[in-house]
Design brief:
Length: 402
């Protein structure tokens, strides 16, 4: 129900923005070409949202939303989630500024003088004053910004960085000194992931020759029909002790039961409220796989249940898609938690100034509570095509004694 409310608000926003932009352009004597461009831009946006409302009610409807090419979908995502809100804020600011200026002008000079000045405004060749041209041009800023951001996003959506870090861990068993983890998360196989991108992820990870590969959820973007290439990607990853994965919220959007059945049927090391045991240089190591939950109470209960099952002689690593599980992990004195989900805030100026801070306590990088540590990855793929200041990544973690 909440999804349809959000989509309905987006549709309402499109209709209001469409009507307001056309009215603004006509009021300031914009040409016919500008009006046609406005109708085309807002028409496509509105049609896509309408189609989304209709198709999401039918089986396979989510996949049918891919009737637009990738650049068209990127434009629609960027418009609705970035540029339209910025445009609304900009227009509110302009309206408030003009209203205040109008009040001061009325107080500062007689109406007769204002009428004389308005009549003397210098028109352009087509009868449009310079002031009107400037104001009409402002109406084009949000759509032009959306188009520009779309071009940048398509260039950068398939790029990721390899981050390497030595992580001091209190109480690390000597046998695990130098133990190397390849941490992947949020691959989001679907509309933005090409075969070349997935091949590069596999090649980059395998060249690390890590001791273990750990994947912390969101293998899929949305559609369950993308599961075959997603499973194939996980199967092609290599490490000394194998590949272990947990679920994320996007894996369960289309058909969670089918996702869980398929990854187990294909023989993947899928951890859901379960523990995998590894032995490295004679030392037992346990991987605790947390099921997806948005509820912090459920996360706490699941972490405590896993912690009660573990071998006290083993070194534990908690795999959690949502980073807020770290609070319970610290209470349970688990030394290391790996998480994703946040995409590093997606749009970030700094680690502390980014969109993720409105939703998450832990957004990107390393966090500590006592002897417990949390590492939040920016994610390797994308559900939203535009990133700023939060590059996609694969992280190589080398454990060292504190």
């Amino acid at each position: 129900m909440g999804v349809f409310v959000i989509i309905g608000l987006l549709l309402l926003g499109d209709v209001i923005a469409w009507a307001a932009s056309v009215r603004w352009l006509r009021r300031h004597s914009a040409g016919r070409r500008a009006l046609w461009l406005a109708h085309a831009f807002f028409g496509v946006q509105t049609l896509y949202v309408l189609a989304m409302i209709v198709l999401m009610n039918f089986p396979g409807g989510r996949r049918a939303m891919d009737w637009l090419p990738a650049w068209g979908q990127a434009l629609i995502y960027i418009w609705h989630l970035v540029c339209m809100p910025l445009g609304v804020a900009m227009w509110l600011g302009i309206g408030a500024t003009m209203a205040v200026k109008r009040v001061f002008d009325l107080l500062a000079r007689p109406r007769e003088q204002e009428a004389i000045e308005d009549s003397q405004a210098t028109p352009m060749a087509d009868g449009m004053s310079r002031r009107s041209l400037l104001l009409a041009s402002v109406a084009a800023v949000p759509p032009l910004l959306a188009v520009s951001a779309t071009g940048y996003s398509l260039h950068s959506a398939s790029r990721f960085r390899l981050s390497r870090m030595h992580l001091p861990v209190a109480g690390l068993p000597p046998a695990l000194e130098g133990f190397r983890i390849a941490h992947l998360t949020d691959l989001h196989v679907g509309r933005w992931s090409t075969r070349a991108f997935l091949d590069e992820v596999v090649q980059t990870t395998n060249l690390l020759n890590a001791d273990v590969v750990l994947f912390t959820g969101d293998l899929l973007d949305i559609s369950i029909s993308d599961l075959p290439p997603a499973i194939d990607t996980i199967k092609r990853l290599r490490s000394r002790h194998g590949v272990y994965m947990i679920e994320g919220n996007h894996d369960l959007i289309d058909n969670g039961a089918m996702f869980r059945h398929a990854v187990l049927h294909e023989g993947l090391n899928f951890l859901r409220s379960s523990i995998a045991k590894l032995e490295h240089n004679g030392q037992l190591l346990e991987l605790l796989g947390l099921p997806w939950s948005r509820s912090e109470l459920m996360m706490q209960q699941d972490v405590m249940a896993l912690a009660s099952m573990r071998d006290r002689g083993a070194f534990p690593i908690l795999l959690a898609h949502h980073p807020h599980a770290f609070d319970a992990a610290a209470d349970a004195r688990l030394p290391l938690t790996l998480a994703g989900h946040t995409h590093g805030g997606q749009l970030a100026l700094t680690r502390d100034i980014n969109a993720g801070n409105m939703l998450f306590r832990y957004v990107s990088g390393l966090y500590r509570k006592g002897d417990s540590q949390l590492l939040v990855s920016n994610g390797t793929g994308n559900w939203f095509p535009l990133r700023m200041g939060a590059p996609a990544e694969i992280i190589e973690i080398t454990l060292v004694g504190a």
